[in-house]
Amino acid sequence: MTMEAKAILRTARISPQKARLVADQVRGLSAERAVNLLKFSDKKAAHLIKKVVESAIANAENNQGADVDELKVKTIMVDEGPTLKRFMARAKGRGTRILKRTSHITVVVGAAK
Q1: What phi and psi values does residue 25 have, to the nearest 5 degrees?
Q2: CA–CA dist 53, 60 (Å, integer)
Q3: What is the DSSP letter of 107?
Q4: Do residues 4 and 74 lie in contact, with contact meaning Cβ atoms separated by under 8 Å?
Q5: CATH of domain 4-111
Q6: Residues 45-71: pLDDT tens digits?
Q7: Are 85 and 101 in contact (CB under 8 A)?
Q8: In sequence order, what are the residues at sequence separation of 6 or more whose Cβ sits closer than 8 angstroms to the Cβ of residue 42?
């Protein structure tokens, strides 16, 4: 049985499209390298994903006694969460909807073979 640990951030206030850009950069990297890459990224999604990766690493270390140096990001998924619908006033008494999208970010880390 392979050792895996998982962490999920639900309803993060960032659009899935923007979060996937960052998730694609760290997929398959070693856990240490992924955290380092995310630390120096200016994107909002990088900060959120970094916290989830660190949580997954801590889960692996505490729950399964994994060696942190051996871990790598096995899977990282960004799914769409509930959308917040907002109203913006426009000219001539009209209004348009603004969709504030949310994301569910799932990270699975496991031992690199």
Answers
A1: -75, -30
A2: 11
A3: E
A4: yes
A5: 3.90.470.10
A6: 999 999 999 999 999 999 998 899 999
A7: no
A8: none
- What residue ranges of the chain have pLDDT lower than 70? 1
Residue type, 113: K
Structure tokens at 26: 């760290």
Instruction: Supply the DSSP string of 55-95, one letter for each residue.
Output: HHHHHHHHHH---GGGEEEEEEEEEE-PPEEEEEE-GGG-E
**Residues for the chain: how many in total?**
113
- Give the number of C-alpha atoms closer than 13 A to the C-alpha of residue 88, restricted to the C-beta side: 7
Place of tokens 């006694």: 65
Are 38 and 22 in contact by the 8 Å Cβ rule? The answer is yes
CA dihedral for 40, 102, 20, 53, sign (positive or negative): positive
- The 3-state DSSP class for residue 19 equals helix
Place of tokens 């994994």: 66
Q: How far is CA 97 from CA 14, 77, 80, in A?
A: 17, 28, 18
